[in-house]
Specification:
Layout: H1 9-24, H2 26-35, H3 40-54, H4 56-61, H5 65-68, H6 70-92, H7 97-104, H8 107-117, H9 125-142, H10 152-172, H11 181-200, H12 208-211, E1 213-216, E2 219-222, H13 223-248, H14 251-258, H15 260-273, H16 279-298, H17 304-307
Antiparallel strand pairs: 1-2
């Protein structure tokens, strides 16, 4: 017998804000490591491997999950945990952090396009408006009339992250409610660590960069401090806060607050990395966020439980559901997908 989660708006908003802030700082923390000579795959592997270590107690408690939901665990580990994050960090190595994240937030738009073009599902007028706004905002952000001022490879990688996010929305559309979200995240981190070990080759990782001092916003810190921040704060804590937010709020509200992740990323990149957007790009950023939010709320009903949570719930994320058997209070919480 399922037990519906109790909503606590005040504490839920605190959890949602904490998740957005934690997720939003990932790209900023990764940039100095990338500048120090680390490959994006190395940084991604350090992040997921560190998170797997931190979340190991959750793996022990929910050890039966892979036997019951192997495809969910595998999909979550490969698509959002490995795919989205690796593509996002690869994009961050080439284009500004805020721009990369804004492009990735096109995921819900791609979900709507999939439903309309591939599944031939009717979508609402608001969905069309959301898609048009998001595409127009992307054009402003990239300033396409000026001949694409951003690295096209970086833009392509960010679009790949958005596609991977959308892919997880669609994969999760068929999942049931018998998997605790934090357990899915923990096992996803383990799967991602194993999957990424092949292309990342952690044995070739420049470990000296973790000992060397790196600059971040005028402050010099050891590289390992940023690596620990990525694994603990921007992954383990961020996902846990996202799950807490969705359990205390509705997915719609939690997903809405999650858009503060973009604001956080842009502000932190400006203050700590000196990356600023011009007025046209700021306008494009606002239009993309509005369009993505409208698209998110207009996704056809079957996909809503997954697509309604983009970063603190979804990216995410991009983006399973809850309730390990015998853990009824988690039953309606989607699995977050973050970057």
């Amino acid at each position: 017998m399922s037990v519906q989660p109790v909503r606590h708006r005040a504490s839920g908003l605190v959890y949602a804000l904490a998740a957005a802030l934690a997720f939003g700082g990932a790209g900023v923390a990764a940039r100095p490591l990338l500048a120090a000579g680390m490959d994006p795959l190395h940084v991604t592997w350090l992040r997921v491997a560190g998170a797997a270590v931190v979340l190991a107690p959750v793996v022990v408690v929910h050890w039966r999950l892979p036997g019951r939901r192997p495809w969910l665990v595998l999909a979550y580990g490969v698509v959002p945990m490995a795919g989205v994050q690796a593509l996002y960090f690869a994009a961050v190595a080439r284009i500004p952090v805020g721009v990369a994240l804004l492009i990735e937030f096109m995921g819900p738009v791609l979900v709507l396009v999939w439903f309309r073009v591939v599944r031939r599902t009717r979508v609402s007028v608001s969905a069309v408006v959301g898609v048009v706004l998001a595409v127009a905002g992307l054009g402003l952000l990239l300033q396409v009339w000026a001949g694409m001022r951003l690295d096209p490879v970086g833009v392509g990688l960010a679009l790949g992250a958005a596609a991977a996010q959308a892919g997880f929305f669609l994969l999760s559309d068929a999942t049931g409610g018998d998997a605790d979200p934090l357990a899915v995240i923990a096992f996803g981190a383990v799967v991602a660590t194993v999957v990424l070990a092949v292309p990342a080759r952690p044995w070739s990782l420049p470990w000296g960069a973790l000992v060397d001092q790196v600059a971040l916003g005028g402050v010099v810190v050891p590289g390992w401090v940023l690596a620990v921040w990525l694994a603990v704060v921007s992954t383990a804590v961020a996902y846990a806060m996202g799950v807490g937010a969705i359990r205390r709020l509705s997915p719609q509200v939690a997903g809405g607050v999650a858009y503060l992740e973009v604001v956080t990323a842009i502000v932190l990149a400006w203050v700590l990395l000196g990356e600023s957007l011009n007025l046209v790009q700021i306008l494009g950023a606002v239009v993309i966020v509005v369009g993505a939010f409208v698209s998110q709320t207009a996704v056809p009903s079957r996909a809503v439980p997954v697509a309604e949570v983009v970063s603190s719930g979804a990216q995410a994320s991009s983006r399973g559901r809850s309730g390990e058997e015998g853990e009824g209070s988690a039953e309606s919480a989607p699995v977050p997908e973050g970057r």
